[in-house]
Amino acid sequence: MYFVLKYIEYPVFKFQPDPESRSPSITHSSLSAVSKTDGLARTSRKRSTSTSKQSGTTTLTVENMSETSILIENKEVLVNPDCYLGSILDYICEVACLPKNKNFAMSTMDGAPVNLNDGILSTPGLEIFEPKSTYFIILKDYDESGTEVMTPLLSKNSEMYSTLLMKIRNQSSIRVKKEKSATVQSLSRFRSKESIREKNRLKSGQSSRKDLKNTSSNLPPIKQKN
């Protein structure tokens, strides 16, 4: 009767560097080994030395002397859906250390959104969540252009993060295409109705002019006074 929630704590997530923002090693540093697991990235860099001989002395310059190791593991917890939606959301905020005012959504393994907004807080959780399924917390934000940005609350070094992010973007793209298609169809139906109304108005106007002409021809001639 439980579903699985995969996540990391929000404070930990917030201070993660973006994978794209990690620049390669600075001058004289070379990447010697990279090993990645789910939530684990280890990077070892070779020491570089520059040697100059001046008055019989040697100068040693070492960049990136220590091994960089980032270890952030995704967590999971079992959640009982057989209770009110409000209680489930409160529990999720508690385990993931989410601020109460933080705007978030949830998704399935396929990146499909969970319709939390369709249910009030007293909605039974079993109407929204399926037991034995896996769900993820999705942070909602907006970029400078006002476009909604959806980000999984997972370790950014994990394969799960990149896979789910790609699926969410695909789902979003499909949803936008459907909305555009629905808008085009709606406009097409509206224009079709307007066209029919316009034709009916023209027919009505033509009919009124014919009736007026017929009425005028049936009037008795005007007698002129002598």
Q: What's the topology here?
A:
Layout: E1 3-7, H1 10-14, E2 30-37, E3 40-46, E4 53-54, E5 57-58, E6 68-71, E7 75-79, H2 85-95, E8 104-108, E9 134-142, E10 148-152, H3 159-218
Parallel strand pairs: 1-9
Antiparallel strand pairs: 1-7, 2-3, 3-6, 4-5, 8-9, 9-10
Explain what the structure shows:
This protein has 226 residues and is α+β, with helices and mostly antiparallel strands. It has one domain. Helices cover 34% and strands 23% of the residues. It contains 3 helices and 10 strands. Strands 1, 7, 8, 9 and 10 form a 5-stranded mixed sheet that branches. A hairpin with a 2-residue loop joins strand 4 and strand 5 (57-58). Residues 23-69 have low confidence and may be disordered.
Largest sheet: 5 strands, mixed
Backbone CA Rg? 34 Å
Proportion of residues in helical segments = 25-40%
- Strand pairing plus helix content: what structural class? alpha+beta
Number of strands: 10
Encode the helix/strand succession as letters. EHEEEEEEHEEEH
Overall tally of structural domains = 1
Average pLDDT figure:
74
General form:
elongated
Total helices: the number is 3
What share of residues are in beta strands?
15-25%
